[in-house]
């Protein structure tokens, strides 16, 4: 298995997982042209994708899905709650409904959805597996739950939200109501909460950890990396960062 990120943050998200000859994109918050360009950067074209799995309806995740999937006839996997946000003219034949507690397969990739607290209709995040290794991805997480800890334990690679530093958020320029939303239990995970979550996980097989969905205003890569490195007791150079502009390059699990 290998995986790459096309971009991560409130300006748009997309990640690609590859197992053998199957590739699945998780979320697409970019327009058609930009998604195509970002795929080309990692050596792929639209026809390489066997499906798109969607976490929730916020524009940075669902915003580019319908147009891209319809143009290239790519099946879209999403919960019933999230599906209500697809445009009315989206082809029903491309919709694959996800039960938030039931694993499913897309060709060579086993995909385990799990529900998360976030201010969306029926949000999920995903663990991807090929039968031997597992990649857990969680962004847009208001707060960790026991179920999240269970799903992300025993992963070989983790992409985990480090949205903000609480001091930068509260001292920053966001309106008070937005600060409350971001920091709330249905908002986004801050660096310290991400570190606390990592400490709860069974991480003995972990080979990759990447901080994702960083706020450009309320966080810095250095703060996010330091928090995760301290939680794992590892070198900071071992912790990756998914950036808004570049995401991150392919990583073999
Ligand atoms: Zn988001
Ligand atoms: Zn969201």
What does this entry look like structurally?
- The protein is α/β, with parallel strands linked by helices and 253 residues long.
- It contains nine helices and 14 strands.
- A seven-stranded mixed sheet has the order 6-5-4-3-2-1-14.
- Helix 8 packs parallel to helix 9.
- The termini are close together.
- The site of one zinc ion has 7 residues, from helix 2.
- Residues 56, 58, 118, 120, 140 line the site of one zinc ion (ZN).
Q: Could you list some keywords that capture this structure?
A:
seven-stranded mixed sheet, alpha/beta, single chain, 253 residues, binds zinc ion, globular
**Low-confidence spans: pLDDT under 50, at least 5 residues?**
none
Q: Can you list the ligands bound to this structure?
A: zinc ion
Number of helices: 9
- Strand residue percentage: 25-35%
| End-to-end CA span | 6 Å
Series of secondary-structure elements, N-terminal to C-terminal: EEEHEHHEHEEEEEHEHHHEHEE
Shape: globular
Strand order of the largest sheet: 6-5-4-3-2-1-14
Please write out the topology:
Blueprint: E1 2-7, E2 14-19, E3 22-26, H1 32-41, E4 51-53, H2 59-62, H3 65-72, E5 76-79, H4 80-83, E6 95-98, E7 104-106, E8 109-115, E9 124-129, E10 134-138, H5 146-152, E11 157-161, H6 166-171, H7 176-183, H8 191-200, E12 208-212, H9 221-232, E13 239-241, E14 248-252
Parallel strand pairs: 3-4, 4-5, 5-6, 10-11, 11-12, 12-13
Antiparallel strand pairs: 1-2, 1-14, 2-3, 7-8, 8-9, 9-10
Helix pairs in contact: 8-9
This protein binds zinc ion (2 copies).
The site of one zinc ion has 7 residues, from helix 2.
